[in-house]
Write a structure and sequence with these properties.
Pfam families: CMD (PF02627). The chain is mainly alpha-helical and 114 residues long. Helices cover 74% and strands 0% of the residues.
Length: 114
């Protein structure tokens, strides 16, 4: 599931940078987040991705946000839908938080434009 959502390169990079110290958290993420929560059937993957993008933006976790913007696009979210969820962030978490999230998302979305 992790490779399906995030892409082969993202997951390969995560595991290539793994050290003996960080191995337990990578295994935990793979088992709990991707092996359990992301595979529940109630929400589709696009909805899960948009929720995740919103939470990461709200928390200011730009590195993780970048990967999950890619994942949201992989799961069928449109740039317009990403803009909408980030506008929600502006209302509820503040404009500076949303501006940073827009910058991060734009680095992914704009890279896909011809």
């Amino acid at each position: 599931m992790r490779k399906q959502v995030m892409g082969e390169a993202f997951v390969a990079h995560a595991f290539a940078n793994m050290t003996p110290f960080t191995e337990p958290i990578q295994q935990h993420i793979t088992r709990k987040a991707w092996g359990d929560v992301w595979q529940r059937g109630t929400l589709d993957l696009k909805t899960r991705s948009l929720i995740t993008v919103t939470m990461l933006a709200a928390l200011g976790k730009q590195h993780e946000l970048k990967g999950h913007v890619r994942g949201a696009l992989n799961n069928g979210a449109t740039p317009a839908e990403l803009q909408e969820v980030l506008l929600q962030v502006a209302v509820y978490c503040g404009v500076p938080t949303a501006v940073e999230a827009f910058r991060t998302a734009a680095s992914v979305v704009d890279a896909d434009q011809p």
